[in-house]
Amino acid sequence: MPSAGAAGARLPLRMLHDRILVELDKDSAERRSASGIVIPATATLGRRLSWAHVVAAGPNVRQVAVGDRVLFDPEDRAEVEVSSKDYILLRERDVHAVAEPESPESELGLYL
């Protein structure tokens, strides 16, 4: 059974073991400094982690789900092309963090 992508598209593959397939965030290409200066993706600033969206996950993946936004080291990656689209193949242990979904309750604050 093929894995489902974040946009509902079917991928012609089945992930194995603890592997996850991610698609880089579109925002990771360029960044803006606090003063509004655009920093191109080709600028090197030392070791910087990247954000990506999970589009497929293997059966032994426990902490990450399809649709999650994950933080990983771009140095520890394997690139793959599936259906003429570029993805990155990672092990679950190569993921440093999973972003929490934004909720409207977080804007209200805590009342004690």
UniProtKB/TrEMBL annotation:
On assembly, the entry states: Heptamer of 7 subunits arranged in a ring.
Where does the secretion signal sit in this chain? none
What family is reported? Belongs to the GroES chaperonin family.
Concerning SUPFAM superfamilies, the annotation shows: GroES-like
Q: Name one Pfam family in it.
A: Cpn10
Q: What is the recorded name of this protein?
A: 10 kDa chaperonin
Cited Gene3D superfamilies: GroES chaperonin
Q: Which UniProt keywords apply?
A: Chaperone
According to its UniProt entry, the function of this protein is described as: Together with the chaperonin GroEL, plays an essential role in assisting protein folding. The GroEL-GroES system forms a nano-cage that allows encapsulation of the non-native substrate proteins and provides a physical environment optimized to promote and accelerate protein folding. GroES binds to the apical surface of the GroEL ring, thereby capping the opening of the GroEL channel.
Q: Which organism is it from?
A: Sinomonas terricola
